[in-house]
Design brief:
Number of helices: 17
Oligomer: single chain
Radius of gyration: 20 Å
Number of strands: 0
Helix content: over 70%
Strand content: under 5%
Distance between the termini: 25 Å
Largest sheet: none
Order of helices and strands: HHHHHHHHHHHHHHHHH
Length: 392
């Protein structure tokens, strides 16, 4: 392995590890809501607002922070954003009241979208142009590992040692990630583009369409996945233990699907994004019927896992393809679009479940994924071999 390749691998690993920490934090509160509510003397419904505050911070605060830091050197900015995240995690761990917990979550969320956008852009700068899709997928895999391991382990720690313990561990892990970033990230100067350039890019029709594709397409997955546990127990008849095993398999599939999509994006971004959305539309449409029989339910969950996060590399690739030399704000907004899609899909799924249509959430998800697929034809020609590298 050459020295340049070794540095690239080290940089991607450091960025991936940092994203893992952030991804674990995002969903951690959801797993310890009873403990948070009991300790801070609020209802579980009120405690759940810590999840909402974080999501709003990502969607709204991320682009604001990105704009405010657009002219800073990249390595220093990456370290600074992770230090901000550490402050938010420490404040959450020490919060004597629910108000201060919300403040800590909000502080952490402000670095979430800005850091992830920065990490994705920096990742494409440390690899050859024909491997940028794989670089995006490698960094994004930090989130899939967080979902697969970080969140469950954090929840177990919270149940065993109190809800503050996982936030304390996250603070320590964040500081370790800061040290790793300082050690291996190459120095990158601030972009030469101006704030006006970034704003001009994010308001281009293709970029707005790409962001809409992300939000609409990812909401299709969220409609079903948010309520997949009750779907598998009430409709398919699985035991809670079997559902846990299926969700673990789903997470492993998500990890593999994300990496495979990155390699496919290197070859053809348009074919990959359309193939993923086509597959999602199919599996979501069949989910209500597959759930009626356990063997087909297992198959549907595994296929959904493979495809769910396979959207990340090609969708971020679409943004980089259309953003050109000023991708930072557009990438940050697209990160927020993933969160917005997840929140919208969860809300829609909740309405369907409340209406007694738990089994049929897949049809709503398929409609949204099909809409995302349709939007890709407005973004890219029907026949296209474009790769992410062409955005450079």
């Amino acid at each position: 392995m050459t020295t340049g390749m070794t540095k690239s691998v080290a940089s991607l690993a450091a960025l991936c590890a940092s994203v893992f920490v952030i991804g674990t934090s995002e969903y951690l509160v959801a797993g310890v809501l009873p403990e948070v509510g009991a300790d801070l003397q609020v209802s579980q419904g009120t405690a759940g607002q810590a999840v909402t505050a974080y999501a709003l911070g990502v969607v709204i605060g991320g682009p604001v922070v990105t704009v405010a830091t657009a002219r800073l050197p990249r390595k220093g900015l990456a370290i600074g954003l992770m230090l901000l995240f550490a402050v938010g995690s420490a404040l959450s761990a020490l919060a004597p009241s629910f108000g201060l917990l919300l403040a800590g979550r909000l502080v952490s969320s402000l670095s979430h979208a800005a850091f992830l956008a920065l990490a994705l852009v920096m990742a494409t700068g440390v690899v050859p142009e024909n491997r940028t899709g794989s670089a995006i997928a490698t960094v994004a895999s930090g989130f899939t590992v967080a979902t697969l391991l970080g969140v469950p382990l954090g929840s177990l720690l919270g149940h065993a040692a109190g809800w503050r313990a996982p936030f304390a561990v996250l603070t320590a892990l964040t500081l370790a990630a800061v040290a790793l970033l300082a050690l291996v990230l190459p120095r990158q100067q601030a972009p030469a583009t101006s704030l006006r350039d970034e704003l001009r890019v994010v308001t281009r029709r293709p970029v707005l369409l790409a962001i809409a594709t992300t939000a609409v397409g990812f909401s299709g997955v969220s409609v079903v996945f948010t309520y997949i546990a009750p779907l598998l127990t009430r409709v398919a008849g699985f035991s809670p233990a079997a559902v846990s095993a299926l969700l673990l398999a789903y997470g492993a599939g998500s990890f593999l699907g994300n990496l495979a999509a990155g390699k496919l994006t290197d070859k053809s971004m348009s074919a990959t994004v359309r193939g993923v959305f086509g597959g999602l539309t199919g599996v979501l449409a069949t989910m209500p019927f597959a759930a009626a029989w356990q063997p087909t339910a297992v198959l549907a969950v595994l296929v959904l896992g493979l495809l769910a996060t396979a959207t990340i590399a090609p969708l971020q690739g679409l943004i980089l393809h259309h953003a050109g030399a000023a991708p930072n704000l557009a990438t940050s907004v697209n990160v927020g679009a993933f969160n917005l899609g997840a929140a919208t899909g969860s809300a829609l799924g909740g309405l369907l479940v409340a209406a007694g249509a738990l089994r049929w959430t897949g049809l709503a998800g398929a409609t949204l994924s099909l809409t995302g697929l349709t939007l890709t034809y407005l973004l890219l020609p029907r026949t296209d071999n474009t790769t992410v590298s062409s955005a450079a």
